[in-house]
Amino acid sequence: MAAAGKAAAFHLPPLPTVGEIIKLFRLRAQKELSQNFLLDLRLTDKIVRQAGKLKNAYVCEVGPGPGGITRSILNAGVEQLLLVEKDTRFIPGLQMLSEAAPGKVRIVHGDILTYKMEKAFPNHLKKNWEDEPPNIHIIGNLPFSVSTPLIVKWLENVSKRDGPFIYGRTQMTLTFQKEVAERLTANTGGKQRSRLSIMSQHLCTVDNCFVIPGQAFVPKPDVDVAVVHFTPLVQPKIQQPFELVEKVVQSVFQFRRKYCYRGVEILFPERERLKKTEQLMMAADVDPTLRPFQLTMAHFRNLCNTYRKMCDEDPSLFAYNYREELGQTKRKHSPESIDQLEQTKEEDHL
User: Fold this and answer.
1) Residue 128, exposed/middle/buried by CB under 10 A (0-12, 13-18, 19+)?
2) Is the pLDDT of residue 127 over 50?
3) Quick one: which of 15, 181, 307, 319 could link to 176 by a disulfide (CB 3.0–4.6 Å)?
4) What pLDDT does 145 receive?
5) 87 is in an annotated binding site
6) C-alpha to C-alpha distance for 287 and 252, rounded to whole angstroms
């Protein structure tokens, strides 16, 4: 019996197992949607523990699928759980969980990439950005196909303090392909250092918590999966607009195997490229012969700050698009320019 004055800890009543739910509703993971089910509740419990203390917390779970992680979240004693699921096949099984936890679960049939989270939680949960994170968490076993565009979208939300971050420094615990997780957390000089490393680490504390072997999923993916935890920083390490930072970082990593000045060059129109590149590198105090993965966060901060000053002096500069200029040249059938255009695609997948 619970002690006087204390509410008893919540536990789900006996339910069909996740495997039985899959059989009951004839659910099959769809390869085209990059779906992989995690049935081992010991692993789902471990994922949820990475989010920290969830008792009485408000949680949004992304893509709950058959509800394995959902059960672990409910058993952690949350106050409210919002489930955002795109695939209609999973809704009946999630409704079964909702009925087993009266008043705790809200199911939204929708796409998390377009779902507006600004009104997902009560206003009283909002915290000032400088305060401790709000009692709100985002948790999800993300389909591989959506994980990178979704985290980039949320990083932009962090930068602008909107979306799920209108409530404050909302924490996220998400799964990624192991290689993507390594990019998100890679240090300077690491072979996985990439655009994602800079964009995530300049805005958040990013922790690679643990790796789940591919064989733990059904069906088994060709890669292992890692759990990554994000806590937005009070002050970003690069205090410039998201679009500007993304443009500089993406340009630098466009040619990751070449000297970094090669990527910086494509920030500028051809007619003034050499002059402006030299001006930027010198003012930012960056060695032009360093490779992109060798650049520190301070290097990127200096590059972004200097580029911002150059854009303020010449407002048309930020609108310049290297691909458009190369595309115009390509239409003139220059073999050299065609090769150059193809080379710019080298790191797009990062």
Assistant:
1) exposed
2) yes
3) 181
4) 87
5) no
6) 13
3-state secondary structure of 140: strand
Q: What's this model's pTM, rounded to 2 decimal places?
A: 0.88
Give residue limits of the domains in the chain.
18-232, 242-343
36 annotated among ligand-binding-site residues = yes
pLDDT at 221: 83
Per residue in 272-319, pLDDT tens? 999 999 999 999 999 999 999 999 999 999 999 999 999 999 999 999
The CATH architecture that domain 242-343 belongs to is Orthogonal Bundle (1.10)
Name the helix (H) or strand (E) containing 24. Answer: helix 18-24
| Rounded-to-10 torsion of CA 277, 280, 284, 288 | 10
CATH class of domain segment(s) 18-232:
alpha beta
Residues 79-103 as b/e (b if ≥16 CB within 10 A, e otherwise) read bbbbbbbbbeebbebbeebbeebee
- Arithmetic mean of pLDDT, 217-226: 87
Is 208 a known ligand-binding residue? no
85 a known binding residue? yes
Residue 278 is labelled as binding a ligand? no
Distances (CA, A) of 85 to 25, 62, 191: 16, 7, 35
**Lowest mean pLDDT: which of 51-55, 124-128, 338-342?**
338-342
